From TrEMBL, chain A:
<keyword id="KW-1003">Cell membrane</keyword>
<dbReference type="GO" id="GO:0016655">
    <property type="term" value="F:oxidoreductase activity, acting on NAD(P)H, quinone or similar compound as acceptor"/>
</dbReference>
<keyword id="KW-1133">Transmembrane helix</keyword>
<dbReference type="GO" id="GO:0005886">
    <property type="term" value="C:plasma membrane"/>
</dbReference>
<feature type="transmembrane region" description="Helical">
    <location>
        <begin position="345"/>
        <end position="367"/>
    </location>
</feature>
<dbReference type="GO" id="GO:0048038">
    <property type="term" value="F:quinone binding"/>
</dbReference>
<comment type="similarity">
    <text>Belongs to the complex I subunit 1 family.</text>
</comment>
<feature type="transmembrane region" description="Helical">
    <location>
        <begin position="94"/>
        <end position="116"/>
    </location>
</feature>
<feature type="transmembrane region" description="Helical">
    <location>
        <begin position="313"/>
        <end position="333"/>
    </location>
</feature>
From TrEMBL, chain B:
<keyword id="KW-0472">Membrane</keyword>
<dbReference type="GO" id="GO:0008137">
    <property type="term" value="F:NADH dehydrogenase (ubiquinone) activity"/>
</dbReference>
<dbReference type="Pfam" id="PF00507">
    <property type="entry name" value="Oxidored_q4"/>
</dbReference>
<feature type="transmembrane region" description="Helical">
    <location>
        <begin position="6"/>
        <end position="28"/>
    </location>
</feature>
<keyword id="KW-0812">Transmembrane</keyword>
<keyword id="KW-0813">Transport</keyword>
<dbReference type="GO" id="GO:0005886">
    <property type="term" value="C:plasma membrane"/>
</dbReference>
<dbReference type="GO" id="GO:0048038">
    <property type="term" value="F:quinone binding"/>
</dbReference>
<feature type="transmembrane region" description="Helical">
    <location>
        <begin position="92"/>
        <end position="111"/>
    </location>
</feature>
Length: 452, 119
């Protein structure tokens, strides 16, 4: 893979020094561009999701407004914008009004550090195809995701409706839990790339390294998704949890919470803003997945054979194609998986994802140290053995507890069966005895149910 | 610092667009409210009681745990960036083992106290 990528012309990678030097009008063009891109993305993303999930469920999906129903989202948006807006009498007016804005604005802001391409010439100015980049770019995304949680909690609280409060609390607890696992799954990426800046992480994925194993040189693939597959898998689960998507869409569990934190927002413009923020969040986590694990804007293998693949505005196209693929994955998951229970969701986040993540970070860091620090090999080997042993012991402990619990449960069920078999009325329910004679055979005249 | 200017520009655009949308919405939409319309929706039946239901305290405990681990992540990130540089290797590794050990104690404590168990 390394050789294939080396064939392509060396793209013009921006460095951190290239940012913050744009003239103000270039910055404004880029900012407006991102805004328009996301708005159009939401409009057609909703249409794409509905169309794709319809096909997966053997339906047609929207097909009335415009060709192929393409204008369906535009029609919905217009309706929401022109509809009567209801402020229920008891709500906290200020917070009720502000919380959609608190959710929507940070969602858009997170996109400012997403790299869409290399250095390009924009109206005669050489500039990176990315609004800005910071030494702490990925941290900025996590911080903005946390601000979005305020919007959720305040929307629930300000609505003064029990379902909305419960939905807001649930959603907040879920998002912060999965955010931790998400942040931990980034650590391995930073270990390899040595930076938090998104453009440099993309550059770190342009060439693979080499591993010498048993005296032979192997070249490792350049995209982090292969090298860091455990981190990537954890990230995929967390990005579903972080954006409140199926199978983790507990905040909107219709059966138990009506609409969750936005129950009291009748389908007005404010509701549209919640939906907008949700989709933009999906785009943000998709873009982050692409940037951190799928080589960012760099062309995938067959295309990268072409010399010009990673130059000019072409990478923007590869980036969008990757976005469509990741978004389709979201839809596919939504079509396939049922919603999980809330206690399972939290237990999975805290008891599985976070400990696994910590263990993987230690293991990976030790491997890295082994390759960097040749001198201290025995010491590092000892630590590696220690980590592996500790992981094994923890796993054994879990296994023993799980087995014991399973045996206890089985014994309990068996005891209950026996008790009910001996005395059917013991359970407290008026159950007729199992051997009660009530069937009188075919000789009796049958009474049809229709006459009664 | 000038790298942050575009973030502020995007923030300004975001606030302007959403504030503008809400303003236009206010001018264009019809308003015919009746007392019935203004009741809380809840689940479609007339609402009962105050509005704010009591809820479990454990949501609050989870946000506390979040603070612990968010700080943990904030310390992990700079560690990860300098890890591979010359002169850091071994010492940083051992230090991080100790640090993560202490953090892991936190989650084990919460676990033993049955904070993570939903009843």
């Amino acid at each position: 893979m390394r050789t294939f990528i080396a064939l392509a012309a060396n793209p013009d990678y921006p460095t951190l020094e290239d940012f913050g030097k744009d003239p103000i009008w270039i910055s404004i063009i880029k900012a407006v561009g991102i805004f328009v891109l996301l708005m159009l993305g939401v409009l057609f993303g909703v249409w794409f999701e509905r169309k794709l999930i319809s096909r997966m469920q053997h339906r047609y999906g929207p097909n009335r407004a415009g060709k192929f129903g393409l204008l369906q989202s535009v029609a919905d948006g217009l309706k929401m914008a022109l509809k009567e807006d209801i402020f229920p009498r008891t709500v906290d007016k200020v917070l009720y009004f502000l919380s959609p804005v608190i959710i929507a604005v940070p969602a858009f802001l997170a996109f400012s550090i997403v790299p869409f391409g290399p250095m390009v010439t924009m109206f005669g100015e050489r500039t990176p195809l990315q609004l800005t980049d910071l030494p702490v770019a990925v941290l900025l995304v996590l911080a903005l995701a946390s601000i979005g949680v305020y919007g959720i909690v305040l929307a629930g609280w300000a609505s003064r409706s029990p379902y909305a409060v419960l939905g807001g609390l649930r959603s907040a607890a879920q998002v912060v839990s999965y955010e931790i696992a998400m942040a931990l799954s980034f650590v391995a990426v930073f270990l390899v790339a040595g930076t938090l800046s998104t453009s440099e992480i993309v550059r770190a994925q342009s060439v693979g390294g080499t591993v010498s194993l048993f005296g032979m040189e192997f070249s490792t693939p350049s995209w982090f998704v292969i090298q860091l597959i455990p981190s990537f898998l954890i990230y995929v689960i967390c990005m579903l949890g972080e954006t409140n998507r199926v199978p983790f869409d507990l905040p909107e569990g219709e059966g138990e919470l009506v609409g969750g934190f936005h129950t009291e927002y009748s389908s007005s413009l404010k509701f549209a803003m919640f939906m907008l923020a949700e989709y933009v969040n999906i785009f943000t986590v998709s873009a982050l997945a692409i940037t951190l694990f799928f080589g960012g804007w760099q062309a995938p293998w067959p295309i990268s054979l072409w010399d010009g693949a990673n130059t000019g505005y072409w990478p923007f196209l590869w980036f969008l194609l990757k976005m469509v693929i990741v978004f389709s994955f979201f839809v596919w998951v939504r079509a396939s998986l049922p919603r999980i229970r809330y206690d399972q969701l939290m237990a999975f986040g805290w008891k599985v994802l976070i400990p696994l993540n910590l263990g993987w970070i230690l293991l990976f860091a030790t491997f890295r140290a082994l390759r960097i620090d040749e001198g201290n090999r025995t010491l590092i080997m000892t630590m590696l053995a220690f980590v592996v042993l500790a992981c094994f012991l923890i796993y054994m402990r879990f296994d023993i507890v799980a087995q014991r619990r399973k045996r206890e449960q089985e014994a309990e069920v068996a005891a209950e069966f026996e008790e009910l078999g001996n005395a059917p009325e013991a359970g407290g329910f008026p159950v007729p005895p199992l051997d009660l004679p009530h069937y009188h055979g075919v000789q009796r005249k049958e009474v049809s149910s229709g006459t009664h | 610092m000038s790298s942050y200017a575009p973030v502020i520009a995007l923030f300004a655009i975001g606030v302007a667009v959403f504030a503008g949308a809400l303003l236009v919405n206010r001018l264009l939409r019809p308003t015919h409210s009746t007392p019935d319309k203004l009741t809380t929706y809840e689940c479609g039946v007339d609402p009962v009681g105050e509005g704010w239901a009591q809820s479990q305290v454990r949501y609050y405990v989870f946000t506390y745990l979040y603070v612990v681990f968010a700080v943990d992540a904030v310390f992990l990130f700079p560690w990860a960036t300098v890890f591979a540089r010359p002169g850091y290797g071994m010492t940083t590794l051992v230090e991080m083992f100790v640090f993560l050990g202490v953090i892991a104690l936190g989650i084990v404590y919460a676990w033993r106290k049955r904070v993570l168990t939903w009843t």
